[in-house]
Amino acid sequence: MRIFAIIRVNINVSIHAGITADLLHAFLHAFVQAFLQVFAGIIAGDFAGMEGDWREIFVMTREEAFELLKKYNSDPFHIRHAITVEAVMKWFAKDQGYGDEADYWGLVGLLHDIDFELYPDQHCIKAPELLRAGGVPEDIIHGVVSHGYGITVDVKPEHQMEKILFASDELTGLIWAAALMRPSKSTKDMELKSLKKKYKSKGFAAGCSREVIARGAEMLGWDLNELLQKTLTAMQDCEDEILAQVE
To answer: Above 70 in pLDDT, residue 102?
Structure first.
């Protein structure tokens, strides 16, 4: 990004030419100007004009996010769900033309249910407090909270990433449940018609809200079958990666 390029140039000049008061002043001036550019972008909420990806500065690492998740979650079921949604979100990022943001989409998926195990009655309400305490950026917090839109909060999904999280979260649980009913215990040999049969059975995996899934498809402007097929394909492609992390 520009801020780092400016710093590198001025440091190199200082090393080769010798640090003088004028050079030091120029360096500090350039640094302040670059910082103000970043800060102005944050205030305005407009990062499009900045060179590179602004998330290079503000996004935590995957390791940090996973440790934060485990701070509030210990149930293997919840950990597996978080890892599943992380993998599915990364798959969707690539599928939707946001491949360079795949890790970012994955972080939102990994942290999306951070408050559910300890605070199920405050799901997506308690999350901002926990995430801010862990140093999570506000854009990730918005993405996490927005998947509770119309359920526990009024934070609407705006970005494609947030809409996909809203639409696929419950569906991943339904797909895993359906897979466990199969002799193979796997998603890999599951077909859409089999998934649709389970989806239409109200008594099967009743905790996975069909209403939320349908609202998610509508939010995306997708036919329900498209959402079901894409999410199933995502889980099939990611199954080995998911299981390797939870076994």
So the answer is: yes
